Amino acid sequence: MNTHRHLVHGLLAFSLVMGAAAHAQSAPQIVWSAPTPNGLANSIVGVAWAPGSGARVAVGSTDRWVRARAASNGALAWSVLQPHRSGTADQVVYSNDGVQLAVHNSNRGGAYRVHRASDGAFLGSLVITIQPNEVVTFTPDAQLTASTGDTTAARWRIVNFSVVRIVGSGYNKISTNWVFSPDGQLQASASQGTITVQRRSDGGTMRLLTAGNLRTTTPMQFAPDSASLAAWASSPNETTLFRISDGAVLRRFPNAQSNEGVTAVRFSPGGTRLVTTGYRPFETSEGWDQRGTIRFWRVSDGALRQTFESGTGIGVTSAVTWSPDFTRFAYGTYAGTVVVANVPAP
């Protein structure tokens, strides 16, 4: 691979921008929240809820720490510092059985460090490869195979992963990010205002969509039935739901202000709700400020059902992750706090 091409899991750039004032909104029903234990400045950007019993929530931070907490009360189970100069722990993913935890670091390219979920012990790596036809594959390395006996990535649901490739630098930098369908059959890549939906079996193009951000990564996710794709773009500032079969726009979810930022887009497990996380700037008598924002949308008609802007800090810097029974959700903030709250009524 060209030395100027490297794989990273993307975090949408978080910046202060100006906009019109809007009224404050409510807080989610918080079960518990936990600040970073060491008190150092960091942001939570990766959050995952263990499957099965759902006993733990794992988080990854900009300060390289990965931590696992009790899902019931936030008690710290273990902390592991990622390698020196590895960058942000920008993604955490539990294996299907909850026995392993994959962690991506922003400076480590196409590899996920895999830890034992019970105590954080390092087991090996899951390696990403982008094939010539742009199909993304995941393969255990020799150390992970020796530690676990795994020779394929069957232990993992690829829908939980997100891959970013950055080519070039400065003004000429081009970002491409991939997401994967829940049925494992499709992948979507966004780059320079175009989203390409491909079959993973042979790389064949299913659909080209004029959508997404021109210069930065595009927050997006397939619906649980794999038949549609939601993607956010800053211009116009809205999330759009596309049908894969013909590219038709099924629904639009516009933000209240043109300068709001969206970090991530997530569906509820049944696909009836869409959740966007990010931040909203506003003006005060003393200048400009901003709040973290979580919006719950109804997919059937695009109605905005809840907006949470308290208990969210100045920015929600992770996607939401759901408890296995879909009664609670977790998220991380710019100030390094992880929060678990009750899922609101539809």
TrEMBL record:
Keyword annotations from UniProtKB, A to Z: Repeat, Signal, WD repeat
Matching Pfam families: WD40
Ranges annotated as spanning the membrane: none
Signal peptide: 1-24
Family annotation (InterPro entries): Quinoprotein_ADH-like_sf (IPR011047), WD40/YVTN_repeat-like_dom_sf (IPR015943), WD40_rpt (IPR001680)
tRNA-binding listed as a keyword: no
Protein's name in the database: WD-repeat protein
Organism (species): Lysobacter dokdonensis DS-58
